[in-house]
Specification:
6-stranded mixed beta sheet; alpha/beta; 329 residues; 9 helices
Length: 329
């Protein structure tokens, strides 16, 4: 074996080894607007939770205005949209809103991407974060306990805005129905509050959303029964002595200011459903019995104080052997 042949073999082995190395893929991202970062003083933190279906542009604009501390002024903010699939459809309409310097959509569908420096840097420097709809189980599996989660929390701590719609709103609650086993409808949840119903905790822990569980597409998919089951589970399982459901209809948003005052925007209603005592019967393979849920129905333009919750203005509904005693809507 000649010297040159040995060198050639060694080079081929090196090349083969390099080809076998995994290729570092970049996160898919789409920018609309100015690539440079702005650094305004922030006046939040605030929230915008959408019920799915048509987005409420008024609510997104409200969040932007609250964060920049004005309605008609020169102050601008950078918005980051986070999603696991879909398109960059939010870029153009949000960029057209007042006070927006840029909108960038980041597609993050695995835990490696959720820990990449380029992602973390972009999220940390944003003033508004918006989670698109999708699959909350994928979001939880891909983003929980990653550096992305901490980066989003840093925006909140700076006084920024956190928004989301559908699954992107559901992951903002203290208690999250994760749909990792399967989705569930109201009838099945009331018949068995344990079948295919699992929860995720400590995803985000937002000050004015403590003790809450968020549900969306509420009126259209008639989800009151399943929310009642979700609430009963938190109490029965010892998670909390009470739980407040925030149920948002399609084409509707709830916005929450830094003092915890929530306002309903859009065409539908938001239901605040409180369970504040132990359920009479909440067991696997057994229909639910739970008396006297307190329900506040808040129509568009109305408010609900999440920090100092009201003690009146509600109506009562009960579940007995898996059936709601009267129309809960």
């Amino acid at each position: 074996m000649t010297k040159w042949f040995q060198i050639g073999v060694a080079l081929l082995l090196i090349i083969a080894g390099l080809l076998a190395l995994p290729i570092e893929t970049k996160v898919k991202r789409y920018l609309k607007g100015n690539a440079d970062d702005v650094t305004p003083s922030l006046a939040g933190p605030v929230f915008n939770l959408g019920g799915g279906g048509p987005d409420v542009d008024e609510a997104i604009q409200w969040m932007i205005n609250q964060v920049r501390g004005c309605t008609n002024c020169a102050t601008k903010v950078d918005v980051v949209v986070i999603r696991a699939s879909g398109s960059d459809g939010y870029n153009l309409p949000i960029y057209a809103m007042k006070g927006v310097d840029s909108v960038e959509t980041l597609f993050i569908n695995n835990r490696d991407d959720a820990n990449k420096p380029e992602v973390l840097d972009k999220v940390k420097k944003a003033e508004v974060i918006f989670f698109a709809g999708g699959d909350q189980c994928k979001y939880i599996r891909n983003w929980k306990n990653t550096k992305l989660k901490a980066a989003v929390e840093s925006v909140y701590k700076r006084g920024g805005g956190i928004g989301g719609t559908s699954a992107g709103a559901m992951i903002q609650g203290d208690y999250i129905f994760n749909a990792c086993e399967n989705s569930v409808d109201a009838r099945d949840a009331l018949e068995d509050p344990y079948r295919n119903i699992t929860f995720t905790y400590n995803f985000f822990t937002w000050k004015n959303l403590n003790g809450t569980i968020v549900d969306t597409h509420f009126d259209k998919r008639e989800r009151m029964g399943r929310l009642m089951a979700f609430i009963a589970r938190q109490i029965k399982d010892g998670v909390s002595s009470s739980a407040l459901g925030i149920a948002v209809s399609e084409g509707t948003s709830i916005v929450v200011d830094k003092n915890g005052l929530a306002k309903v925007m859009g065409k539908g209603s938001v239901y605040f459903v409180l369970g504040d005592h132990k359920p009479e019967v909440c067991e696997p393979r057994t229909p639910l019995t739970f008396s006297n849920y307190k329900i506040w129905k808040v129509r568009s333009g109305g408010t609900f104080n999440l920090k100092n919750r009201p003690i009146s203005g509600y109506y009562l509904r009960s579940v007995k052997r898996g059936r709601i005693n009267s129309n809960p809507y």
